[in-house]
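Pilot study result, target chain (73 residues):
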Amino acid sequence: MDPIATARYGLMAASNRFETAATRIVSAPSDPGVDLGTEFVEVIQAKHAFSANLSVIRYAQDMWDSLLAIQSR
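Predicted structure:
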């Protein structure tokens, strides 16, 4: 299992969720079926998902750095 590949997929999914919600928010004045509250919640959730996946990448990088440091001893 590659945590960086998984996190990269998560980053792309969060980015797509954010873009979709942002597009719906922009179209809200002309589309009465758009619930702004729901779309803003979606934006916030996408932001948190993006941050969580970045944390996974940082943690995986720290693990690799630690392993390399152990091997170089």
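One observation from the pilot: The chain has one domain: 3-71. A full batch analysis is planned for the follow-on phase.
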